[in-house]
Design a protein that fits this description.
The structure holds 2 protein chains of 2 kinds. Chain A is α/β, with parallel strands linked by helices. Chain A is built from 30 helices and 9 strands. Chain A has helices at residues 3-23, 26-29, 33-37, 39-48, 54-79, 86-102, 118-141, 146-162, 183-194, 198-225, 227-239, 243-249, 253-275, 280-293, 297-315, 319-340, 342-348, 358-365, 369-372, 376-385, 395-413, 418-433, 446-457, 461-471, 479-488, 501-513, 540-544, 561-576, 581-589, 606-610, and strands at 143-144, 177-178, 498-499, 519-527, 547-552, 557-558, 594-597, 615-621, 624-629. In chain A, the strands form 3 sheets. In chain A, strands 5-4-7-9-8 form a 5-stranded mixed sheet, sandwiched between helices. In chain A, strands 1-3 form a two-stranded antiparallel sheet. In chain A, strand 4, helix 27 (540-544) and strand 5 (547-552) form a beta-alpha-beta unit. Chain B has 2 domains: 2-35; 43-129, Immunoglobulins (Immunoglobulin-like, Sandwich), CATH 2.60.40.10. The chains are: A alpha/beta, B alpha+beta.
Chain lengths: 630, 130
């Protein structure tokens, strides 16, 4: 494609999106997805960097494009006060391509070579396989609900309805102010503006982030272990140990996405440190991306940085020069990232300390009570062999660790010790954070190292592929095992991570048969400090715009505690007895019109509601019940 | 000669590794530890089921804290969602009791007790079966 063709394609796409925005044609608008995920970043890469591989091009374009979309949305709305309406997307996508068009004359499109050696073919085979099993998994789960999906799509949908980014979420949510990583609600918002509902948008982006994080992992391993080992490590990571996918499936999508940025930062750090590459634009945008989803990864980045510092100090000769250089590079990038992120900082500044309030800190650490009491040997077992998702151990972790011990000599002999240093420092990091419910998720960072260990022993592609079906039966974070447990989960467990078409039918019923000012009392009640409860109903709001009677105990939001406790108490009394007259009167004061109960109910018992004269059953399909309050 | 050089190189590297490892480990411990809050209030808690009806159970929970503090008891009925939430003041070395009425259900409730004052935190947790 030459330059003229490229500009014609870009302008045509912009016109199509503009028509789509004005006429509400979702199909045309959805073309905008490639503006969010690829085009702006790719054009900027072409302008600023002469050399990058195809994979680097894909990954960095993804990073830059998403960060740009988030930052521009924040800037346009917070600083320029442009409301979220049909024209917003046209302005957004025009601006996304603007920096590139300025320098279009200088663009030199990269020629892509398709000469593949044996290792490239194996890699492409593994990649195709990993995409295929992800598609099977995606078809299996339909849509992800999970812990964070409900709470952040609620916020993004409030922005959508209010047409602005706001700090006061009332009357749709209890929070009057909050501080959280902005990408978690801006990305679903932009997707909703395109026409994809915010809940499904999280599922779509989760799968994209998962694939891109495995690619970033491959490039990192290529530098740390060499190409051959990296190819096989890629297989194990993408099929068995993908942290991003696992966290995303279970609803912790901000953390899942941040893992991708962590890998990219490790990759950039390696290139800046050892290869003297200039990567400031990508570094800035990756830091912006990291902050947009979960800043906690900074500590893991420090662990990686001191691993490469250790390597250089022990084996190299330019420790001080290289260390100084990379630190300066990070300081420079952090300053730029901070400036780019000024709009959300200024808007949410007053709420930045909420998470550190004593009542919120203590709320968080109550989840660690049993961990604190754990004997030392059990802590070590957990640090090495237990997944922080679901707290289950797996034989694969044990095998990965044992292989790592056996390989130590090999690693040292071949000067591939960075990964070993990383594992040691990671262990110290994880030991310190073991009791913390948020930071202890870093326990899963042992998985990339285990993937690398396995790659030294299992390097036959056909044999590796043959292992996949066996993994269907082996308790592990592998995709085959995920498919297995999700298949057998016909009756969902207490916390619904994923939803099936039956839930969509219930949502459609609500859209078609209830008025827009209906308010739903939902089973599960509300959300706790570190996650949302088991409320299928929580997603009624982002999917149908009907409000829910809910109580939110976010540890990062300001809300009326007395009001919160009043709601909890009404929910408790109505759970005991749906005919509790005082509770019923109070519910009516809140204008509650319906009660929504899903499968695997926890608080609200559908049998009690069916037997009551105060409620009328209006929907009863596939274990979903909706009652109208008389 | 080569062997001696190689051996001294190796031991040199080992010493360098040990030095840098100690330094960075210390940096990690010193810089990360402040981010982890420690439960250093002594909490003695106990919950007993006092009565059961067809619809609900009543539990009596008592807490004894070694310093004046604010206590907050949350009962969750799923992983995170609360069905009971109460805050109260606790006097040093005195037992504070609360009654918790919960619906009869097929699962076990999880009680989280968080206590704090100006300087310290404390936690207590238990399971309530109704």
């Amino acid at each position: 494609m030459n330059l003229r063709e490229l500009s014609i394609v870009l302008i045509s796409l912009l016109i199509l999106i503009s028509i789509g925005s004005i006429t509400n044609l979702t199909f045309l608008r959805s073309i905008g997805l490639i503006f969010i995920f690829f085009i702006p970043g790719y054009l900027l890469l072409l302008i600023f960097y002469k050399k990058f591989s195809i994979l680097e091009g894909f990954i960095y374009s993804f990073v830059i494009s998403i960060s740009l979309a988030i930052c521009l949305t924040l800037f346009l709305n917070i600083f320029l006060r442009i409301e979220f309406n049909n024209f917003f997307l046209t302005i957004l996508f025009s601006l996304l391509t603007l920096p590139s068009l300025v320098k279009l004359k200088k663009l030199k499109l990269k020629r892509i070579s398709f000469k593949l050696d044996k290792l490239s073919k194996i890699f492409l085979f593994y990649l195709a396989l990993s995409i295929l099993i992800r598609i099977i998994l995606l078809l299996k789960i339909g849509s992800i609900l999970g812990a964070d999906v409900g709470r952040f799509t609620t916020i993004s949908h409030i922005f959508y309805l209010k047409k602005n980014i706001v700090t006061n979420l009332q009357p749709y949510d209890m929070a009057t102010g909050y501080f959280y990583f902005p990408g978690t609600f801006i990305l679903p918002l932009v997707m909703e503006l395109i026409g994809i509902n915010p809940v499904d948008s999280v599922t779509i982006t989760s799968f994209l982030f998962s694939i891109f994080s495995t690619l970033a992992f491959y490039l990192l391993m290529k530098r740390l272990l060499g190409r051959e080992k990296a190819v096989h490590a890629f297989f194990f990571y993408s099929s068995v140990f993908d942290i991003t996918l696992n966290y995303a499936i279970f609803g912790a999508f901000p953390y899942a996405f941040a893992i991708f940025y962590l890998f990219v930062l490790c990759l950039l750090s390696y290139d800046i440190f050892f290869a003297d590459k200039k990567r400031i634009l990508i570094l800035v945008m990756t830091l912006v991306g990291l902050f947009s989803f979960h800043l906690y990864m900074i500590f893991l980045l420090i662990v990686f940085l001191i691993s490469i510092f250790t390597y250089e100090f022990v084996s190299g000769k330019r420790f001080f020069y290289r260390t100084k250089k990379i630190i300066l590079e990070y300081v420079k990038a952090a300053i730029f990232a901070f400036i780019i992120l000024l709009p959300p900082f200024l808007l949410f500044w007053n709420y930045i300390t909420i998470s550190f309030a004593k009542e919120n800190v203590v709320d968080l650490i109550t989840y660690s009570y049993f961990k604190e009491k754990m004997p030392f040997y059990l802590k070590i077992w957990n640090l090495l062999f237990v997944s922080p998702i679901g707290y289950v151990s797996s034989g694969l972790f044990i095998i990965g660790f044992i292989l790592l011990i056996f390989l130590l000599k090999n690693f040292i002999k071949n000067k591939k010790t960075i990964l070993v240093y990383f594992f040691i420092y990671l262990f110290i990091h994880n030991y310190i954070f073991f009791n913390d419910p948020n930071y202890s998720r870093a326990l899963s960072m042992t998985w990339p190292v285990y993937s690398a260990s396995l790659s030294f022993f299992l390097s036959n592609p056909l044999l590796n592929v043959a292992i996949l079906p066996i993994l269907y039966f082996v308790q592990s974070p592998s995709i085959p095992y995920l498919i297995n447990i999700l298949t057998s989960m016909e009756e969902p467990t207490i916390v619904p991570w994923v939803v099936w078409s039956e839930h969509s039918n219930a949502m459609n019923f609500i859209k078609d048969n209830t008025s827009l000012d209906s308010i739903f009392l939902v089973d599960g009640g509300g959300s706790g400090c570190i996650g949302s409860g088991s409320s299928y109903g929580e997603r009624i709001f982002p999917l149908t715009s009907r409000r829910i009677f809910y109580f939110t105990n976010y540890c990062w939001a300001d809300y009326n505690k007395t009001e919160y406790r009043r709601r909890v108490d009404i929910y408790r009394r109505i759970s005991i007895d749906p005919d509790d007259l005082r509770a019923l009167v109070e519910l009516k004061e809140y204008n509650v019109t319906h009660v929504f109960i899903g499968p695997g109910h926890v608080g609200l018992d559908p049998v009690l509601f069916s037997n009551s004269n105060n409620y009328e059953l209006v929907y009863d399909e596939d274990n979903f019940q909706i009652f109208e309050v008389k | 000669m080569m062997k001696i050089i190689s051996k001294s190189l190796r031991s040199n590297r080992l010493i360098r590794f040990l030095v840098v490892f100690l330094v960075f480990s210390l940096v990690l411990v010193l810089s990360l530890t402040p981010f982890v809050p420690v439960s250093d209030l002594n909490i003695d808690g106990n919950c007993e089921r006092e009565s059961v009806t067809e619809k609900y159970c009543v539990f009596k929970c008592s807490f004894f804290v070694n310093e004046d503090s604010i206590g907050r008891v949350v009962v969750t009925h799923s992983a995170w969602g609360a069905i009971f939430d109460q805050e109260f003041n606790v006097k040093s070395n005195q037992t504070e009791s609360i009654d918790i009425q919960l619906p009869r259900r097929y699962y076990t409730y999880y009680l989280k007790g968080g206590f704090y004052n100006q300087d310290k935190y404390g936690t207590w947790a238990g399971r309530l079966t109704c």
